[in-house]
């Protein structure tokens, strides 16, 4: 019966622990509403036929002949409507409390909405854009905020929908019941590319989830890799400018672990003000940070070394595509006028600068 009603009402599949319960309330409300509409229609039709005026009906009924039945019907109707209201309120309130109260063993994931992407951060240190990896049969609590405007996080198969507000944290939780890939939508208009602010929840078996934590997306099943690729394509299509695509590519390839965009020096030089600047080299020479130098530094970072920074960056030859490199160069161009501080030699993290992380681009 549940599956029949779900299909009749064109609802998506139920893929979370609370989805069937939420749909049950939906069926109940729809059923009572439709039943009430049919009942009113039948009673109205009966009254039209039973009490229609005839030409021979010239005598007026006495005023008291219908007062008692009408009062009885009104009383029954009022009590019936009150009972329905309290029933709906009780079930809905209980479901609301269940949705807002995550189990104690829930996995926390930090979600940031931004025009026009979803960013996910994990306690283990992993971070993803547009793809949320979760284990099945384990509660997941989302701790959400926005960096710009109001967004709304919606996963139809999980029956979870929560507004994401700038300057505030809101929470919601779910427990995926089956492995699979489920679309994430933004259901609060947030600007030009609102319709492209999409993503994927990839629910994995616990063993596959642990392999993902240890080895990244390449160690996930084929369906997860295909879903992640779709999310990447959707994200790229939603980015209106090359610098925005470049920022996403830099985050995806790990460049922003060692470089900053705001002028702060880190393990590698900041990208702010870098493009077309004169770069001092370790061997005493100088280079202009143009397209050739930046591309060479990404593909063969040990060929020329920026003075004052450690040679810790691996080669990305064959790993970063030419479109991503072009987008990152456009990002550097867009922050060319952002001021940056003096170069402070990196001391291996002794003074709190942090340790170098694999994947940092150091032009």
Helix content: 25-40%
**What order do the helices and strands follow?**
HHHEEEEEEEEEEHHHEEHH
| Estimated radius of gyration | 30 Å
Widest β-sheet, arrangement of strands: 3-2-1-5-8
Structural class: alpha+beta
Chain-averaged pLDDT: 84
CATH topology (level 3) name of the largest domain = Immunoglobulin-like
Number of domains: 3
Shape verdict: elongated
Strand content bin: 15-25%
Q: Main β-sheet: number of strands, strand sense, barrel status? A: 5 strands, mixed
Tally of strands: 12
Q: CATH homologous superfamily of the largest domain?
A: Cupredoxins -  blue copper proteins
Q: Tally the helices: what do you get?
A: 8
Q: Could you list the spans in which at least 5 consecutive residues all have pLDDT below 50?
A: 349-363
CATH class of the largest domain: Mainly Beta
Protein model, in words:
- With 363 residues, the protein is an alpha+beta fold.
- It has three domains: 2-50 and 64-100; 107-238, Immunoglobulin-like; 244-334, Cytochrome c-like domain (Cytochrome Bc1 Complex, Chain D, domain 2).
- The protein has helices spanning 2-8, 19-50, 67-100, 206-215, 222-238, 242-252, 291-299, 322-334, and strands at residues 107-114, 117-121, 127-129, 131-135, 140-146, 151-155, 160-164, 170-174, 180-186, 199-204, 278-280, 286-288.
- The chain is elongated and about 115 Å long.
- The model is unreliable at 349-363 (pLDDT under 50).
């Amino acid at each position: 019966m549940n599956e029949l009603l779900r299909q009749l009402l064109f609802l998506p599949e139920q893929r979370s622990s609370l989805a069937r319960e939420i749909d049950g309330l939906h069926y109940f409300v729809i059923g009572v509403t439709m039943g009430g509409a049919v009942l009113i229609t039948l009673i109205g039709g009966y009254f039209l036929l039973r009490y229609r005026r005839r030409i021979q009906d010239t005598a007026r009924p006495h005023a008291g002949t219908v007062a008692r039945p009408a009062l009885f019907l009104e009383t029954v109707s009022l009590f019936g409507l009150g009972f329905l209201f309290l029933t709906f309120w009780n079930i809905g309130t209980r479901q609301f409390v269940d949705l807002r109260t995550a189990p104690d063993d829930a996995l926390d994931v930090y979600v940031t909405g931004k025009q026009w992407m979803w960013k996910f951060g994990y306690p283990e240190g992993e971070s993803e854009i547009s793809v949320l990896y979760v284990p099945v049969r384990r509660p997941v609590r989302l701790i959400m905020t926005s960096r710009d405007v109001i967004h709304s996080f919606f996963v139809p198969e999980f029956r979870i929908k929560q507004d994401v507000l700038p300057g505030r944290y809101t929470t919601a939780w779910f427990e995926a019941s089956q492995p699979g890939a489920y679309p994430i939508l933004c259901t609060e208009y947030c600007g030009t590319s609102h319709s492209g602010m999409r993503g994927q929840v990839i629910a994995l078996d616990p063993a596959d989830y642990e392999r993902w934590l240890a080895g990244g997306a390449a160690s996930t099943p084929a369906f997860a890799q295909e879903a992640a690729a779709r999310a990447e394509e959707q994200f790229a299509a939603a980015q209106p400018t090359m610098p925005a695509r470049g920022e996403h590519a830099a985050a995806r390839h790990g460049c922003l672990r060692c470089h900053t965009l705001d002028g702060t020096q880190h393990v590698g030089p900041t990208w702010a003000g870098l493009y077309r600047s004169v770069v001092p080299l370790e061997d005493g020479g100088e280079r202009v940070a143009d397209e050739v130098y930046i591309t060479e530094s990404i593909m063969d970072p040990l060929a020329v070394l920026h003075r004052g920074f450690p040679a810790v960056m691996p080669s990305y030859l064959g790993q970063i595509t030419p479109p991503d490199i072009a987008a990152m160069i456009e990002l550097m161009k867009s922050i060319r006028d952002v001021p940056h501080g003096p170069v402070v030699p990196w001391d291996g993290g002794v003074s709190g600068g942090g340790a170098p992380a694999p994947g940092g681009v150091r032009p």
